């Protein structure tokens, strides 16, 4: 063990260190009898994370080692806590029965659980994927693979560093693998927010990856997966399978394919856009994300798929319309919707259940859940087949109720089995004659014991005679001392109690052997029969995985419908044109957070490439500029996800990239200035812009001086207008009213403002987008509404008048005289006054050497100053 001084060790500790040396970076849970123990540094970590007691034990001559443990049956409680604390956990089991060996019990690692590799329900979030990612990169491009071992989903892609960065942000992997020694490069490209692990150089080679993938899929090449020319992606994918070997995950039958994420099929959402639009997580704690608002799915599978649909919106008209048509059908036929929902509620997490079959971790109760899910598929298949919709008919064709295995499980497992096979009474009557016979012996044998008790009691006239059982000498007859003289000579006395004697007989011993032998055989036989059933079900993994995917899609489309009905969404029109035309659009998240009785002010937005390519939006803070920008992007995003949208009319010419540069960034904590972050994000947009891009800029240039900010904002707008290859549709919200002058010089730039109404000295925000620029920002009004001191507001108004009047800057530097009154809560400096006492106090303080003043001297000096003021 790294850093632990070893003395003469006990045999157990020698075995422990031998195993620990193979996994020095993992917390080793070492099975000893009925406990998992941790030692040394692992024990210190475990005690702190789990809140368990840390003790010491002897470790040979003149040595001790820290120790912390917990009962083996509490593994499901403690393992998730370790993994969520970012620990890798190696589980070391006893590989033989301690009763059958005189030497130290053989032990070995049976599983290595990491944040990205787990099939334990208590670690997994049921409505989220638990992706393990692997990245392989060169100077300009990168390959990435994503694998969820709990569902069998295996995806890969290749592209620019920005594209792979975007995918990592979309898929949010719990762990990322990359080549050893490339940590600085990885952090430079993809940041430091991921939990990472390094693998040896040889793993990230073309030969090793190809060999591992073709061995797993039992193919001669990777052509069937459409990835044969994506070398970086192949290497990343092969490395993931190597990692599963290292972590002792050998049962991978449920990982049956490798899907390529094709860049051409999905809208580009970079990490700034994902964050700024608050798709998966709100920027502020009190906020809500878009997924929170629109996720009305019933099953965990549906919820996971909906997140994927949001991360990868479509840019092909046909599949988008396919989704919209199903939603429209459900809207018109609520009975069909309710019927499918009712059966979908019985499905549960079929995708993860079938993965448990592959790894041999499914329990009897979960097998019954699989049957419930398969039973529910039949009715869903039937109603989809009858629907007047191509997509639903196609779903019906692909759904497979797996009747043969479903009926077999239903017949062979009891209706309400225990969770663990070891608890018995799992297999139904009639499955095995041998099992039925053994059960008769085990259970009716106990009835026979009751008969013996009655017979012997009557035969010998011992009314208080009873038969009992203990672990020391098995079944016995207990006779109270008052009847001791009636005991026959052939009974063998085994135990004397205060008021009674316990005896055994030949007959009792025979039945005991039969009963106990039967119980042991029952467990062996039930375990074998259940294992055969699990193996039979494993033949259906691919069919059930396809069922899971189809049901998840149906669930997402039902969720879209529920949102459309509940939130009053309308069907968008998706076309190949270059125009976005939204009438009465609303922000899907903000409108759900409004106080009861308050309705969201809807707005129209129209963008095209002929007349109105760039809209410059001015208006005061709090008027709703940012909400308007975001709602436009979210309506486009929802439409291209195939969802209805919060707008009465939405004609969307397909968008291929959505870029946002909204508000100040949180990267300041990394030591970057706001302005630098803004410029990085703006540069990323300008370098990746395309003809079908939608760009949102909100207050660009706030991080620098006014004139710098105006110059940069003007230059960016000009660049987007004059770009030779891409007339990207752009919304530009700004405080810089000078940009309104661009409308006169650039034909496709149009000015709009978010209107307000002045009533006396008050400003009422109408939140309505209207044509034309706004000439000032009403920032001072907003400051007043925020509770700024009146003197500050008054002074700001004076300064604003001077600035607007074009007076010299020097004239501003006369603050106190012009206010005409003291500021609230502000003490005027007494050092500026003529009072001789205050001058004396100033001189006393000025002459102090504060750095070398002792506390007592300071108190004395303070007392002297107090005397000077005449205070007692």
Walk me through what this model shows.
The chain has 7 domains: 11-113, DNA repair protein MutS, domain I (MutS, DNA mismatch repair protein, domain I, 3-Layer(aba) Sandwich); 132-265, Nucleotidyltransferase, domain 5 (2-Layer Sandwich); 317-402 and 540-567, MutS, DNA mismatch repair protein, Chain A, domain 3 (Orthogonal Bundle), CATH 1.10.1420.10; 433-529, Orthogonal Bundle (MutS, DNA mismatch repair protein, Chain A, domain 3), CATH 1.10.1420; 573-775, P-loop containing nucleotide triphosphate hydrolases (Rossmann fold), CATH 3.40.50; 789-827, no CATH class; 830-868, no CATH class. The chain has 872 residues and is of the alpha/beta class. It has a 7-stranded mixed sheet, with helices on both faces. It has a 6-stranded mixed sheet with strand order 3-4-2-1-5-6, sandwiched between helices. It has a 6-stranded mixed sheet with strand order 11-10-7-8-9-12, with helices on both faces. It has 28 helices and 27 strands. The two termini are 70 Å apart.
| CATH fold-level label of the largest domain | Rossmann fold
Mean of residue pLDDT values: 86
CATH class group of the largest domain? Alpha Beta
Give the C-alpha Rg. Answer: 37 Å
Beta content comes to 15-25%
DSSP helical segment count: 28
Q: Which sequence of strands runs across the widest sheet?
A: 13-23-24-25-21-26-27
Instruction: Decide which structural class fits the backbone.
Output: alpha/beta
Instruction: Report the count of strand segments.
Output: 27
Uncertain ranges: 1-7, 665-671, 807-812, 814-822, 824-828
Domain unit count = 7
End-to-end CA span:
70 Å
Quaternary structure annotation: single chain
Tell me the CATH architecture of the largest domain.
3-Layer(aba) Sandwich
| Percent helix range | 40-55%
Main β-sheet, in a few words?
Answer: 7 strands, mixed
Shape by Cα distribution: globular
Q: CATH superfamily of the largest domain, please?
A: P-loop containing nucleotide triphosphate hydrolases
């Amino acid at each position: 063990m790294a850093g632990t001084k070893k003395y003469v060790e006990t045999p157990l500790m020698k075995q422990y260190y031998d195993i620990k040396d193979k996994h020095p970076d993992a917390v080793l849970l070492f099975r000893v009898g009925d406990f998992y123990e941790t030692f040394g540094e692992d024990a210190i970590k475990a005690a702190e994370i789990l809140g368990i007691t840390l003790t010491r034990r002897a470790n040979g001559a003149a040595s001790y080692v820290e120790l912390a443990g917990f009962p083996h049956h509490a593994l499901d409680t403690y393992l998730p806590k370790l993994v969520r604390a970012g620990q890798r956990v190696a589980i070391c089991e006893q590989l033989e029965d301690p009763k059958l060996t005189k030497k130290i019990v053989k032990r070995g690692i049976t599983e290595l659980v990491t944040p990205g590799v787990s099939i334990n329900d208590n670690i997994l979030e049921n409505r989220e994927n638990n992706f393990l990612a692997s990245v392989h990169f060169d100077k300009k491009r990168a390959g990435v693979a994503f694998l969820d071992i709990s569902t069998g989903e295996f995806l890969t892609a290749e592209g620019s560093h920005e594209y792979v960065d975007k995918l990592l942000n979309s898929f949010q992997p719990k762990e990322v693998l990359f080549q050893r020694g490339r940590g600085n490069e990885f952090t430079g490209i993809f940041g430091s927010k991921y939990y990472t692990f390094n693998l040896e150089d040889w793993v990230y080679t073309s030969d090793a990856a190809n060999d591992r993938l073709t061995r797993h899929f039992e193919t001669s090449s990777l052509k069937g997966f459409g990835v044969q020319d994506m070398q970086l992606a192949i290497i990343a994918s092969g490395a993931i399978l190597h990692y599963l070997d290292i972590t002792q995950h050998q049962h991978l039958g449920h990982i049956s394919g490798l899907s390529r994420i094709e860049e051409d099929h999905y809208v580009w959402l970079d990490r700034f856009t994902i964050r700024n639009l608050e798709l998966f997580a709100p920027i502020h704690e009190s906020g809500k994300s878009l997924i929170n608002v629109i996720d009305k799915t019933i099953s965990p599978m549906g919820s996971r798929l909906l997140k994927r649909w949001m991360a990868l919106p479509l840019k092909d008209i046909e599949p988008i319309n396919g989704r919209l048509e199903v939603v429209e059908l459900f809207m018109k036929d609520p009975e069909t919707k309710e019927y499918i929902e009712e059966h979908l509620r019985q499905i549960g997490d079929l995708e993860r259940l079938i993965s448990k079959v592959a790894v041999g971790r499914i329990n009897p109760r979960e097998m019954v859940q699989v049957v419930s899910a398969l039973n529910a598929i039949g009715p869903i298949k039937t109603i989809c087949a009858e629907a007047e919709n191509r997509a639903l008919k196609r779903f019906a064709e692909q759904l497979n109720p797996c009747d043969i295995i479903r009926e077999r499980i239903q017949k062979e497992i009891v209706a309400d089995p225990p969770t663990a096979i070891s608890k018995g009474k799992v297999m139904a009557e009639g499955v095995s004659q041998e099992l039925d016979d053994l059960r008769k012996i085990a259970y009716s044998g106990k009835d026979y014991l009751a008969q013996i008790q009655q017979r012997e009691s009557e035969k010998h006239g011992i009314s208080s005679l009873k038969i009992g059982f203990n672990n020391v000498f098995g079944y016995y007859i207990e006779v109270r001392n008052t009847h001791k003289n009636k005991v026959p000579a052939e009974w063998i006395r085994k135990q004397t109690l205060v008021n009674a004697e316990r005896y055994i007989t030949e007959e009792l011993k025979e039945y005991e052997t039969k009963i106990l032998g039967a119980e042991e055989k029952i467990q062996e036989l039930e375990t074998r029969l259940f294992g055969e059933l699990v193996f039979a079900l494993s033949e259906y993994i691919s069919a059930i995985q396809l069922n899971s995917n189809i049901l998840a899609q149906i669930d997402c489309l039902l969720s879209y419908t529920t949102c459309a009905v509940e939130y009053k969404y309308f069907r968008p029109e998706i076309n190949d044109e270059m125009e976005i035309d939204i009438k009465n659009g609303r922000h899907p998240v903000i409108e759900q957070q409004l106080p009861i009785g308050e309705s969201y002010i809807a707005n129209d937005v129209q963008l095209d490439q002929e007349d109105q390519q760039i809209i410059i939006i001015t208006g005061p803070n709090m008027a709703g500029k940012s909400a308007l920008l975001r709602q436009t992007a979210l309506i486009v995003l929802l439409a291209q996800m195939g969802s209805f949208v919060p707008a009465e009319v939405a004609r969307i010419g397909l968008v291929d990239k959505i870029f946002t540069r909204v508000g100040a960034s949180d990267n300041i904590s990394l030591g970057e200035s706001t302005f630098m972050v803004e410029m990085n994000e703006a540069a990323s947009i300008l370098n990746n812009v395309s003809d079908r891009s939608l760009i949102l800029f909100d207050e660009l240039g706030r991080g620098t001086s006014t004139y710098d900010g105006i110059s940069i904002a003007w230059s960016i707008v000009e660049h987007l207008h004059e770009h030779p290859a891409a007339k990207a549709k752009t919304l530009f919200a700004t405080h810089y009213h000078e940009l309104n002058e661009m409308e006169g010089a650039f034909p496709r730039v149009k000015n709009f403002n978010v209107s307000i109404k002045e009533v006396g000295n008050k400003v009422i925000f109408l939140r309505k987008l209207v044509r034309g620029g706004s000439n000032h920002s009403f920032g001072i009004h907003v400051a007043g509404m925020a509770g700024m001191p009146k003197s500050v507001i008054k002074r700001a108004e004076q300064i604003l008048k001077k600035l607007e009047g074009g007076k010299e800057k020097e004239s501003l530097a006369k603050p106190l005289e012009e206010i005409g009154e003291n500021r609230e809560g502000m003490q005027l400096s007494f050092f500026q006054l003529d009072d001789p006492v205050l001058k004396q106090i100033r001189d006393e303080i000025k002459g102090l050497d504060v750095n070398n003043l002792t506390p007592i001297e300071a108190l004395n000096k303070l007392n002297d100053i107090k005397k000077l003021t005449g205070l007692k």
